[in-house]
Amino acid sequence: LEAIRQNGYNDQVLKDLAGGCLNISTNKTVTTACSHGIGHALMVVNSYELLDSYGDCDKTFNQDNQELELFYCWDGVSMENVVRRFEKEDAKKYLSPTDPYYPCNSIPEKYQAACAREHVFYIFETLTRRDMEKVKEYCFYFTLEKTRFECSSAIGNFLNQAYGNDPQKILDECNKLGGTYTANCIIRAATQYSFSRVPEKAK
Fold first, then answer.
1. Spatial distance between the Cα atoms of 147 and 74, rounded to a whole number of angstroms
2. What is the model's pLDDT at position 1?
């Protein structure tokens, strides 16, 4: 990352990064985690310029069999836009305290699901202070089913982080979404327990 920041990069460097991820393993959990990390890094080297970073993901994972890695690269870009771990003074700002739907309502449609999937954390923790009715309103604002799916699923992850010691609270909050969106939320929360090595709570 530091070498790229100092020396720049080109399309070949991006392709080499993709190769590095894809050569690690045939396990999609591993390759998507790697591509997600590349998304974070691209935001940093691009001084948090969102569209430039999404575009670099497009150049990195541009083969027909790399759709999942591409999505998780966009996801890493979107997460870094929210968490901003390496932000410096020249970093671009793509968060609004007054427009909860920005920037996910202003970018090309293909990036929207990955954007909402991570931006909902900003809605959940910062803008609404864990008000699930407002969080639900955020997800349902978007009309694309893929965006609603990713957004409602991500809520399960964040509920697990917030209420991990209280599985019933997670179920109650997920139930506020309704229908298949409740199922998406619960499945993601249960999966997060497995990642945290406490699968017994997923029951």
1. 13
2. 60
